[in-house]
Amino acid sequence: MRLNKNIKIKTERATLRAVEDLYIDDILEHFTNEVTRYMPFNPQGNRKDIISFINESKRTLSQNTDLVMVSLDSNGNFIGCCGIHNITAESVELGLWLKKDSQGKGLGTEIITALIEFLENNFTFKYILYPVDEENIASKKIPEKLGFVPFKKYQKNKNSTTNLNIVEYRKYYS
Fold first, then answer.
1. Domain segments of the chain: what residues?
2. What does the alpha-carbon distance between residue 132 and residue 153 come to, in Å, rounded to a whole number?
3. Statement: 8-131 belongs to CATH 3.40.50.360
4. Is-above-0.85 flag for pTM?
5. Is residue 85 classed as helix, strand or coil in its secondary structure?
6. CA-to-CA distance for 160 and 155, rounded, in angstroms?
7. CA-angle at 64, arms to 69 and 39, nearest 5°
8. Can you give the pLDDT at residue 126?
């Protein structure tokens, strides 16, 4: 399948669409240190960083390797970002972050389920991987509920003083 900026994925409570400049301020406001506690990112509140992120997302979309999307509620309000990354014949990686007041409502599972269905219907690969920090209990529940199994653990640098302890979950296809 050829990825494009017009792809929309609907869930019961959300619409996913390719990230674009329209969402710079939303991402800037909600991509906070609290939200990224368990992620290898250290937001600086810098608008230029968000613009670079969106431009890189557009570039990888055009190369058909990544689909970075915003998640919007039924009223079109921003609730977070998600992505399908590193698409190859071997594997695909999923990622997700939700703004603070959208967490704990089952939206993460709903969004990841929709991304998996999109992948299963449009791509062929051997497995999906979903990396999560082992201390992020709420996020670990998503792959565990959806039939992923822990594959390996590794450390990933968050900043000069902090490492994340990542559990890489995988869901295999025959």
1. 8-131
2. 10
3. no
4. yes
5. strand
6. 13
7. 45
8. 98
DSSP for residue 74: T
Per-residue pLDDT of the chain (174 residues; tens, 9 = 90+): 999 999 999 999 999 999 999 999 999 999 998 999 999 888 888 899 999 999 999 999 999 999 999 999 999 999 999 999 999 999 999 999 999 999 999 999 999 999 999 999 999 999 999 999 999 999 999 999 999 999 999 999 998 889 999 999 999 997
Q: Which tokens belong to 125?
A: 């690969």
Residue entry with tokens 């400049």: 21
Predicted local distance difference test score (pLDDT) of residue 160: 86
Secondary structure of residue 81 in the 3-state scheme:
strand
Task: Count other Cβ atoms within 10 Å, centred on residue 150.
Answer: 14
Q: Is 129 helix (H, G, I), strand (E, B) or coil?
A: strand
Q: Which of 95, 167, 87 is nearest to 127 (CA)?
A: 87
Distances (CA, A) of 19 to 25, 78, 127: 12, 11, 25
CA distance 80 to 71: 5
Q: How far apart are CA 67 and CA 62, in angstroms?
A: 9
Element (H, E) at 91: strand 91-98
Cα–Cα dist 134/62, whole Å: 33
